[in-house]
Amino acid sequence: MKSLLKATVAAAAFLAAGTAANAADVKACFVYVGPVGDFGWTYQHDQGRLAVVEHFGDKVETAFLESVAEGPDAERAIERFAREGCDIIFTTSFGYMNPTIKVAKKFPDVKFEHATGYKTADNVATYNSKFHQGRYIIGQVAAKQSKSGVAGYIASFPIPEVIAGINAFMLGAQSVNPDFQLKVVWVNTWFDPGKEADAAKALIDQGADIITQHTDSTAPLQVAQERGVHGFGQASDMVAFAPDAQYTAIIDDWAPYYIHRVQDVLDGTWESHSSWEGLAEKHVVMAPYTNLPADVVEMAKATEAKIVGGWEPFTGPITKQDGTVAAEDGVRLDDGAILGMNWYVKGVDDQLPQ
Amino acid sequence: MFEAVLLTVITAATPLLIAAIGELVVERSGVLNLGVEGMMIMGAVIGFAIANQTGSGTLGVIGAIAAGMAMSALFGFLVLVLVANQVATGLALTILGLGLSGMIGEAYIGVPGLRIPELYIPILSDIPFIGPVFFQQDAIVYIGFALIIGVAYFLFRTRAGLILRSVGDNHGSAHALGYSVLKIRFMAVLFGGACAGLAGAYMSLAYTPQWVENMTAGRGWIALALVVFASWLPFRVIIGAYLFGAVSVLNLHAQAIGLGVPSQFLSSLPYLATIGVLVLISANRRLTLVNTPACLGKPFVPDR
User: Fold this and answer.
1) Assuming Cys at both sites, which of A184, A211, A266, B293 could form a disulfide with B168, CB separation 3.0 to 4.6 Å?
2) Which domains, ranges and CATH numbers included, belong to chain B?
3) Shortest CB distance from A37 goes to which of B213, B219, B253?
4) pLDDT of A221-265, one tens digit each?
5) Which of A186, A189, A210, A227 is the mutation pick for testing B, counting most B CBs within 10 A?
6) Does the interface ipTM go beyond 0.85?
7) CB spacing of A198 vs B203 below 8 angstroms
8) Domains located in chain A, CATH noted
9) Handedness of CA A224, A229, A234, A237 (dihedral sign)
10) Measured at the alpha carbon of residue A45, what is the angle toward residues A40 and A51, in degrees to the nearest 5?
11) pLDDT tens column, B16-58
């Protein structure tokens, strides 16, 4: 009995030594909503994590949990990371907002970063990217390229970020063709290749010859490729799946932000904030323009340059679907109005799910 | 328009149909295998990987079937030979399949896949409307229908089918009559695995020709529910799979047309329809009782 106890103690000491030897200065942990292999949203976050690994080497240890369902599971996953000694935890989906805040209260010394949410605390920062800037550009491209004048939009959940994306797309399209039509299909999932493909087919059957999506798989673009229509990549460059169909893609590049924030933790200068950057800071990047005539590429690049120069796509005149004015001519919507958007712009052929 | 809708319904229903008919045979033999999702996703990844390596869709499909069978053989060994709990083992099989497929498939993420070609049946495929819908599908769609007819014939018109059902209804009696309960069940489990693997191949080689983790997205579970929905009768599997496929596809078309019905309601329609039909079916209690395998999920240990 005694010897067994001794052995256990020795083993425990050995284990402790082992961890101490391995211990990096900072442990950065990531909670993902989808599989790292979705080639979309989660894939891009993991690319950001890998960039952190490459940038800091042994100084930073990383860990991640994938396919964590939004809700009670998320709280368990985040809390587990906090207990395991993570110094900074990135929670990378909108639905992790309340669980993150809840766990953060219990672990005041751990730093939390929640993507795409709006609740902050002393140890909870939020970060997001201005994806809608990219969507304005692809809206313009869509209106230029569409023969039928109808685009199809595969949407996930009616949250502000998605609605703002639809509106930005529509404003971009209307800036080229005021009569442009947009059909929206809500699939109520972030990731279901089969369902996304079916939605793309339904939209094409209804006359859309441009497909765009706010869901995470490559399936809609593949359908576009097969049916001979065109579309845009989501979150990552999906051109390999649709060499003839993809015009461009809105790429989320989280690497600069993750490296910056982990550096802050290393330096002890981390503070809570709400980061919301876009094309200008290269948090949002447009993939190379393909399958497009030169004048359209030129237009897209000019718009890109304009946005990088500080122009905001949500600048008036903007009319809501119900006919009321959202922004007068030349007036720019403030960040709060964009981040909390719950109305369609005029011309969207859909009723917003309430 | 109607034709286009029907075409999407067929692609949405086929994987459900194939996985469900396999599980139906398994359950008819008295075994409950909850691992359909796991076997299906393994079929999807292996099918994709082999098709990608060899450039042959046919080899991919064969590989997927083999992968599904290998998974089901593992399940069969655990629950039939070692008499492990069927529910727990089935769940474990799903989790294993999801994890293992993610690991195997890592190299194939972001690699465009190849699609199994559609077969154009001469003359028939030229008939307007009926031709494109029924006679211009890929081989797996036809195999699905052949499976339903084959299984129905096997279960209710052959001696072997009668033996399989008797094993599922009363394994004690079947054993006493000299039939090898475990061997028959093992064969049924293997058949279920093969079907699940084929359904997985349909996902990664025909429905959405690509590999992404978790791409079956719960279809294995729906297939399981369809077996109950069909009250263990093969032809009802067709009705169930197509009803489910139709309602979920119509949801998307209704939105694209712009009917203005809340999408959350439309998304829940397949499940509401399932509940509705289940209520209708269970109204006929006698038929339900007759068709439910009496020994479903009960372990059998031969007493030498």
Assistant:
1) B293
2) 2-118+136-291 (1.10.3470)
3) B213
4) 999 999 999 999 988 899 988 999 999 999 999 999 999 999 999
5) A186
6) no
7) no
8) 2-129 (3.40.50.2300), 131-252+286-349 (3.40.50.2300)
9) positive
10) 125
11) 999 999 999 999 999 999 999 999 999 999 999 999 999 998 9
